[in-house]
What does this fold into?
Amino acid sequence: MLLLLLACGEDDPTQDAECPEDTAVDQVNTAPGAPELAILPADPSAEGYLHCLVTTPSSDPDQDAVSYSFSWEREGSDAGIDLPVVAPAQMTAGETWVCTATPWDGQETGATASAQVTLPVSEDNQPPSGHAVSVLPERPTFSQDLTCLVTQEATDPEDDPIAYGYRWSVDGGDAGVAGPVVESDLLGPDQQWACTVTATDGADGEAVSDVVDILKEPCHAIGLQSTTDLAEAPADGLDLGFFDFTLELWIRSNDLFDPEGQAGVLDTADGSKGAYLCTWLEGDLSCGTRYSDQSSYDLWLSAKDLDDGQWHHVALVFKSAGGARGFGTLFVDGVKVTDGVEGYSSGSDAGLVAVGASEELPAAPVDIGPVRLSDTRRYSGDFEPQLDWAVDSNSVLQWLTTAGLGGSVTDEAGDDNDLVPVSGISAVGICD
It folds into this structure.
């Protein structure tokens, strides 16, 4: 610190006031300059200590005593070390370490200085291998983060410390993401993401990858947001007799309310006809057919544990075996969960005419995307679910594929079975 002393009135000869002999006019501190550093030993290894030494101290114009604070970076990231020494247990061969020293004269910090060293890898080194990785979730939508997990650790022949490097690609090109997580704002529908994890002990070892496909989400969907939510449609042209059919829908739990017991998803509005229907019970979706006198279910198949907040495609396929008898298969996300279950179709008075609450059941806490009833078996083996169904000669009823909720939900199959809100029902599709 520099103390400036001037004689009183020295700069103003006309000043007549009496002054002390000496007067302190100003106090100015000058920050210290940058030191010079070295990391020792000059030929480091991952088995020894690293020492960050000030080889040339900072100069301080005010002759103040100068002290130093230290920080370290490992591979470009803060190592969390504030001492001038790094222990072997914190290092891996092949890493680059940077030491930074900051001078302090008691009042101000001065210019910093840095030194860098790369730890060599032995020519006889055998790199690690044998690890396994997985990208989660397994069926992601573009509203979820991706996480790359090392599910089985690599092993190193020399028992060297192992680190992992992450590299992501999207649709075959570099995604510019390093680290185990990809945030959802980088994702898009129908993309394919791959995570490659390289095990290293200073020298890169085996690289292992896992790939996931980003699912589309329904562009149009409606939400049941209370137990009384209900929408109704006519049943014109839904007479399928005792023949093959496919009932399919996209569904997502929303957890906005908690009905007690069984709750309605698709059912009849007036309670007087047979039905193709689906109900919800504590996260399980059951779909089937019911006699016209409401006395029992003809066919009833269940998909378990769908209350995960993710979109799922559920398809009930009925294969007629003559008369009303036949066999049902239930698919969830394109995979068979039940197969060859004997049952019966509902007969000529069957109708799918309501979404949500009915006379018997409250509405279920779900969002509903595209719905389709077809007079054919559209699936026999595992398949990739689609969202952009085209209306064809087998389409009996189709909602929410090309249009969402305006005043109603249009029956895209052309039979005028438009779905009209009676109570509640909200548009929740991302394109609405």
